[in-house]
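Thread: Newbie trying to understand structure tokens

Hi all, I'm a second-year student working on a class project, and my supervisor (Dr. K.) asked me to get a predicted structure for one chain before our next meeting. I've only ever worked with sequences, so writing a 3D structure as a token string is new to me. If someone could post the tokens and maybe explain what I'm looking at, I'd be very grateful. Here's the chain:
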Amino acid sequence: MNRVRASSIAYGKAALVARMQRSGMRDFGPTGLAISPPRLGAPTPHSASLHDGLRHVLGKCDCPGVRAGAGEPNPPDRRYQQRKRARPMHIHLDPIGGIAGDMFAAALLDAFPEHAAGATSAACALAPVQCRLVAHRDATLAGSRFLVDERGHNRGHHHAHWSDIRAAIAGCALPEAVRAHATGIFVHLAQAEARVHGIAPDDVAFHEVGAADSIADILAAAWLIDALGAASWSVTALPLGSGMVRTAHGLLPVPAPATTLLLENFATHDDGVAGERVTPTGAAILRYLKPGPRAAGRIARQGMGFGTRSLPGMSNCLRVIAFDTAAPAAAQGHRELLVVSFEIDDQSGEDLAAGVAHLRALAGVHDVLLLQAFGKKNRLATQVQVLAAPEQTEAVVAACFAQTTTIGLRTQIVAARALPRRMAEATVDGTPVRVKIVERPGGTTGKAEADDVAQGATHAQRTSLRRRAEEGFA
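---
Reply by user tm_fold:
Sure, no problem. This is what the structure looks like when written as tokens:
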């Protein structure tokens, strides 16, 4: 993103500022920060509609990164590309009070405050607004709010045609991926509104969603979706709400008809709290994200994003939980193994040893373990465990019955994990010694092969041979 103008304002929560500083964000002052948009050319008249404002931005935008009058973005800033997370991440949405566009942006920025400058700047790309991330707390929880203030623009009734919004997004200076996310969210909104009103999507004129603050919310959401690069998303059951909501079309039932279409196949619940709990913008974001099952992983961050309303008996917030789903280093390199196990208490040691030797020589068998055990009537027994490739199941089972006296056995497929390893060779006094090199979490280690070390005539010679072979790989 291009450099944005910042000024200090009362942030009200020193802890959030500290989190931003720990995340590497530039300190804009001891009290916090606010982001103003790039200058958008001549001031928009107070009497102009947002429809005219969008045309104004397209025609005279002098945002950094856009050539004035051309609406053609310069190549994306490489610093923006470098901010994306390299580790796989899953983000879970917990709509305690519900979900709206501003709550979505606030929750993600509360969890990832290092992205505040980029998200607030992106939100200002199409309309004359000023965006701020501010700390907020109610009687129970603390988090953030994402505020959008319109500048030099009539805050009364607005409407904007979908075709104009689409063209404005296509011509702005945001990175290509961000523009694609924003367009995708708006597409879902346009399709839902078209179905409700029985018109073509290109004929849709947005009212509440066409207001400058809603457009800013969607642009901020699109920037965050791309910047965080989550591999997957999930959401718990959504509060349905109840009652009526006043819109440009008059009073409508809650959830609004377009919102209801956007929430098809989403799980909902009734917590007894009335009002609009999921806004059309929030529903469109969810529809675009295509949430699935919650993924397993390590909890990395949590954020709380508050909405404008106060709900009785609960916090009106959206919680996000970010999971780091990358496998730990010690768990990389895994495979499936067949484990065949049984007990023997009536076969001589000599014959069992011969049978186990045949099992070890079988194709696909990795190892055979012999363990002491006590069986029925306290008889001393030998437990046999065969580790083999799963595709050799039938051959291994047949060999176990053929080589031992067992009349029954157990099989299971297990997940095996192994550290990365490779074979190397060292030469000690002219004697070649194979060494197994293992990449452990604490560093690289080497282990000499016992068969090669066995060439030493005495214990001292074998110890010396092993030590000298391994020391070059430790």
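A couple of things are worth pointing out once you decode it. Residues 6-324 form one domain. The first strand starts at residue 6 and ends at 7. Feel free to ask follow-ups in this thread.
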